[in-house]
Design goal:
- The chain has 483 residues and is an all-beta fold.
- The protein folds into 3 domains: 203 residues, no CATH class; 107 residues, Immunoglobulin-like (Sandwich), CATH 2.60.40; 156 residues, no CATH class.
- Helices cover 2% and strands 42% of the residues.
- It is built from 1 helix and 35 strands.
- The strands form 8 sheets. The chain has a 9-stranded mixed beta sheet with strand order 14-23-35-31-32-30-33-24-34, with no helix packed on it. Strands 4-12-11-6-7-8 form a 6-stranded mixed beta sheet, with no helix packed on it.
- β28 and β29 form a beta hairpin.
- The radius of gyration is 38 Å and the shape is elongated.
- The relative contact order is 0.10.
Length: 483
């Protein structure tokens, strides 16, 4: 697998117009980087190249290239007059020119010059021909990405401009003793008949023929494996990863030792299926943790061997994480005494009230008080007053309360509260927030008693039997959002 790297030189010509009678520019005006010059008349100003850049691109360019808008956004500018190192295994390089040739007078030449490691020079000129049109003159040794028809002189006297796009390239190959290895030079030059040639910019590109071993890693989304419980009220999350190891010239590295590591160190547990790559150049590793929120809340995976270049590390976001097992989702409420009009009843003082409570002067339906014991809370009326009674499971007695209290000590809220198993098969962390597809996000702040075990979730919907009448129990996939 190889990625081409393209060196592009981009020339931006200003948006002025050329008047041929303006004459030849003095060479002194071209010292340093070129700049836009004009006589103040937009329609007839002299135009110099405004800026000149050399770029490296981590991609192949299409042929023909065509539009400047297709230039990769992740281009890297190469500074002039200092060596820029690249590798032959990833390099095709060339020139891309985006410009307005109307600023070139008869006798003037703009040149891009390439000098290869042997000292041979290949040049590419732009000059006016005798037909009044700007042309690029290409050396036949180089391929052309895109070559527009000669730019008519008449368009230079019209305010409706259009830009010219040109390109040339030299393909680099992975091979031993390649003549392309060594120091290349790219120069931007200017010529006029009076002063001759002047170099405006020069870039040095040192092409190295070094085969490199690289690693591309990917990881699956985090999930909670089947039938795993809690450790200190924390789930175990797991992500499967793979690292593809390859030689930049020769392709996949087979039976090559590669060790996957995490930047969070011992916070994550990594179980690699085999120490060396398979016949496809791949190693597989299972990464797990019970500390999903340890800074920064994500794990970056790489290969630790120093001879391997990690070109594409993998990142695991530990939360949210989906349980592999589905949950049985049910509805519960705060029972209302008036929902139980029939059946036996007993005086209040025959029920076991907490020692600090004075029982109310009334009879309670047996079915209602039994339901309060199961659900934890209930609502009844005494005269014109509505009261809430709670079963304190830890004391084994009834008392009054101001709201339907959850196991966490908060007031139960429809649209927020769910009950989970806290005693038998611990699956959902208490006080965590989960996402249930049919009802949205809910907070695990209540316990479900004997009815809620393991992969069961009871959703609180409010007071009275009507809040659960339309409910349909179902099995659903649930995600853990936060602790």
């Amino acid at each position: 697998m190889r990625t081409s790297l393209v060196f592009l030189v981009t020339v931006f010509f200003g948006l002025g117009l050329f008047a041929q009678e303006e004459g030849i520019r003095p060479l002194s005006s071209m010292e340093g980087k070129p700049s836009v010059k004009g006589d103040g008349d937009t329609a007839r100003s002299m135009v110099y190249p405004d800026e000149v850049f050399a770029y490296a691109f981590p991609t192949n360019l299409p042929t023909p290239y065509g539009e400047a808008t297709l230039l990769p956004s992740d281009k890297k500018e190469l500074p002039p007059f200092i060596p820029n190192t690249v590798y032959l295994d990833e390099a095709s390089f060339g020139v891309f020119i985006w410009g307005w040739p109307c600023g070139t007078a008869l006798g003037e030449i703009w040149r891009f010059e390439f000098e290869d490691p042997s000292g041979a020079v290949i040049d590419h000129d732009m000059e006016y021909n005798n037909f009044g049109a700007a042309n690029w003159r290409w050396n036949a040794q180089w391929g052309v990405w895109y070559e527009q028809e000669p730019f008519p002189y008449e368009l230079c006297n019209n305010i409706n401009f259009r830009s010219n796009y040109f390109g040339i390239y030299q393909d680099m190959k992975c091979m031993k003793d390649s003549p392309q290895v060594g120091l290349w030079k790219m120069r931007f030059k200017y010529f006029n008949p009076t002063a001759g040639w002047a170099t405006i910019e020069e870039w040095q590109i040192n092409v190295l023929n070094e085969s490199r071993i690289k690693a591309d890693l990917v990881a699956s989304p985090s999930h909670i494996p089947s039938r795993t419980g809690l450790t200190n009220n924390r789930v175990t999350t797991l992500a499967e990863s793979e690292a593809n190891i390859y030689d930049s010239c020769e392709g996949p590295k087979v039976d090559f030792t590669a060790t996957v590591v995490s930047d969070r160190g011992s916070v994550d547990s990594i179980e690699q299926r085999r120490p060396a790559t398979d016949r496809h150049g791949t190693v597989f590793a299972d990464v797990s943790t019970t500390d999903q929120t340890a800074f920064p809340g994500e794990s970056n995976l790489s290969v630790q061997e120093v001879e391997i270049e990690n070109t594409n590390p993998a990142t695991i976001m530990w939360l949210p994480a989906e349980w592999d097992d589905r949950f049985y989702i049910t509805c519960y409420n705060t029972p209302r005494e008036s929902d139980f009009p029939h059946g036996p009843e007993r005086p209040a003082d025959t029920w076991h009230w907490c020692s600090w409570v004075t029982p109310p002067s009334k009879n309670f339906k047996v079915q209602f008080m039994t339901q309060v014991m199961m659900n934890g809370n209930g609502e009844y009326t005494l005269g014109n007053e509505t009261k809430l009674v709670r079963w304190e499971d830890s004391y084994g007695c009834y008392r009054h309360t101001i709201c339907s209290i959850t196991s966490a000590g908060d007031c139960a809220q429809a649209g927020r509260t769910i009950a989970v198993d806290r005693e038998r098969s611990l699956v959902v962390p208490f006080n965590s927030t989960v996402e249930i597809p049919t009802v949205g996000n809910r907070h695990a702040e209540d316990a479900g008693g004997d009815r809620i075990v393991g992969y069961d979730i009871d959703v609180y919907n409010g007071i009275g039997e009507e809040v659960c009448n339309a409910w349909q129990n179902s099995r659903q996939t649930v995600r853990l959002l936060t602790y």
